[in-house]
Amino acid sequence: MYGLTGYKPDEYFMRLALNEAHKAFDMGEVPIGAVLVMHEKIITRAHNQVELLKDSTAHAEILALTAAYNVLGAKYLPDATLYITLEPCLMCCGAMYWSKLGRIVYGAADEKNGYKKYTVQNPFHPKTEIIQGTLAEECAMLMKDFFRLRR
Amino acid sequence: MYGLTGYKPDEYFMRLALNEAHKAFDMGEVPIGAVLVMHEKIITRAHNQVELLKDSTAHAEILALTAAYNVLGAKYLPDATLYITLEPCLMCCGAMYWSKLGRIVYGAADEKNGYKKYTVQNPFHPKTEIIQGTLAEECAMLMKDFFRLRR
């Protein structure tokens, strides 16, 4: 499938999320990408566009989710997996709670703005499975490169 | 000002947020409203449109904030006050963190979905002032009426 040997779906889709993050990087946006997948089909993909849209809610996750609601005409996504290059912030975490996503797969941890810094209990929907650390090093490296260039 | 005696700005604007919540109620949406104000001028107003838009991010607060970013061409709102009829959820709380709002004034507490249930420390921007309980009873009553009608 996908012409790859040793195909691992989570890594495959996380690499596409990383491609999205690279697009953000090239546009001077904090390099975070997201891909929303249902039954191994990509529904939406997005990258951070806070600067372009001058909208501090325009995180990759929010854009991928709202585009999916629009495409699917559904406000809940229990059959979908959202791939994100970085641990979500509190806003995106809350948006995912409401979405009732089946799975959330994220790459690098975010000690500064990640949801874990603020929350006491699992803030996601109880039926949502959370996988962390997929391609974490690559996801983290892209963030580091971005901020190093700006200092 | 506004032709009212005993004018209290927070109550005045919260009443407008309640008007927004009533619009949601009339459309079969959970009755939550928001008004964004700068220098005593209304910039945007919104009500919950989750059902209409089939978009579980379409909370009153998110709609009021994103419309304000659009109107003002700014992604931070340090001079603005956001009036909300209900304690914000985690998603909206996170969106307000990124907005760097000057003030947040909310009405009723929300023990089920409010941000306080999940957070350990102040999740808002450290410079944001939080006022709670403005017209709380009226805001809570509207929610109760809504859910009583649906049971």
Characterize this entry briefly.
The structure is a homodimer of 151-residue chains. Chain A is an alpha/beta fold and 151 residues long.
Describe this structure in words.
Two copies of one chain form a homodimer. With 151 residues, chain A is an alpha/beta fold. Helix content of chain A is 40%, strand content 20%. Chain A contains five helices and five strands; from the N terminus they run H-E-E-H-H-E-H-E-E-H. The first copy, chain A, has a five-stranded mixed β-sheet with strand order 2-1-3-4-5. In chain A, helix 1 (9-26) packs parallel to helix 5 (136-150). Chain A is globular and about 40 Å long. Chains A and B meet through helix 2, helix 3 and helix 4 of A and helix 2, helix 3 and helix 4 of B.
- Count of helical regions of chain A: 5
Mean pLDDT rating of chain A: 95
Radius of gyration of chain A: 14 Å
Structural class of chain A: alpha/beta
Measured as a percent range, the helix fraction of chain A is: 25-40%
Shape of chain A: globular
* Sheet with most strands of chain A: 5 strands, mixed
Strand order of the largest sheet of chain A: 2-1-3-4-5
Poorly predicted runs of 5 or more residues of chain A: none
Question: What string gives the helices and strands of chain A in order?
Answer: HEEHHEHEEH
Distance between the termini of chain A: 42 Å
Strand content of chain A: 15-25%
Assembly classification: homodimer
Name the pair of protein chains with the most residues at their interface, and give those residue counts.
A-B, 31 and 31 residues
Q: List how many beta strands of chain A DSSP finds.
A: 5
Organism (chains A, B): Haoranjiania flava
Enzyme class (chains A, B): hydrolase
Pfam family, one (chains A, B): MafB19-deam
InterPro entries (chains A, B): APOBEC/CMP_deaminase_Zn-bd (IPR016192), CMP_dCMP_dom (IPR002125), Cytidine_deaminase-like (IPR016193), MafB19-deam (IPR058535), tRNA_aden_deaminase (IPR028883)
